Amino acid sequence: QRIEMIAEGEKKRALQKALGFTEAPIIVFANSKRGVEVLQKYIDKWGWRAVVYHGGKTQQQREAAVDGFK
């Protein structure tokens, strides 16, 4: 397990770097629903599969996200 506090302007670059040397699965936390959605788009763009889990999703969507994480 690893926890890192990263300056705002460095977060995307640090995440992309971490994805390159960290074994899946990986959980990334964000401060907002919007932040989670934005991160998912970046992760997908970089060629990794990402699922989104937050309170703005239906229970069915959250369960599907957890199942996709396993």
- The amount of helix comes to 40-55%
Which structural class fits the helix and strand makeup? mainly alpha
Q: Assign an overall shape.
A: globular
Mean pLDDT: 85
Kindly estimate the percentage of residues that lie in beta strands according to DSSP.
Answer: under 5%
Q: How many helix segments?
A: 3
Total number of beta strands: 0
How widely separated are the two ends?
Answer: 17 Å
Q: Cα-atom Rg, whole angstroms?
A: 12 Å
Assembly state:
single chain
Task: Catalogue the unreliable spans.
Answer: none
Q: Strand count, sense and closure of the main sheet?
A: none
Summarize the helix and strand pattern as letters.
HHH
What does this structure look like?
The two termini are 17 Å apart. The protein contains 3 helices and no strands. The protein has helices spanning 11-21, 33-45, 59-69. The relative contact order is 0.12. It is globular and about 35 Å long. The chain is mainly α and 70 residues long. The longest helix has 13 residues, at 33-45.
